[in-house]
Amino acid sequence: MTMAPEGIVYIVDDDEAVRDSLVMLLESRGHRTSSFASAEAFLGAVATPSLPGCLLLDVNMPGTGGLGLLGEIGRIAPRLPVLMITGRGEVAIAVQAMKAGARDFLEKPLDPDTLFALVDQALAASAQAAQAEEERSKAQASLDRLTPRERSVFDRLAEGKTNKQVAAELNISPRTIEIHRAKLMEKLRVTSVSELIGLSARIDSGRKDRL
Asked: What is the value of pTM for the model shown?
């Protein structure tokens, strides 16, 4: 049996039989699961869903329905992949859900092979997002150690500007820029401008993902 990707699979469905079936199927393959009978129960128990992870979410539920919870997930955990569970004749709703941020949808009755494939893909994507976020956080922490002047130099070097161009913009000598550049690169633990630009790109990417 193929090793299941790491992560937790959250299940939100008001149908107890469906929840139990999903838990049994996924845990038989080695997944960790956490199931809830309603969107309210999920939100009450899980303030911030952990990554890596994914959510199996039924469309039609009493109270806050699947689309309502999907919108809330987009606010509190935008990187959590959501797989919608739909009944027959609900494909139009599933399409609406995907436009709202769902990753994919499963149609009842659920096919185990399709379930496994989509969950594995979602968990793999979530793991990549979690790793990217960790790298972005580390990069931002390094950037926060720079002095205001070093940050000014960093921002301009990250744009591909030369020492002379940066010196002219900041109205200081190229030699002073060289000193600032050496210090900031040491703090950031990079050895080249290309690494510096890559670090800046990771931070910018994280910012864009949250927009």
From this structure: 0.74
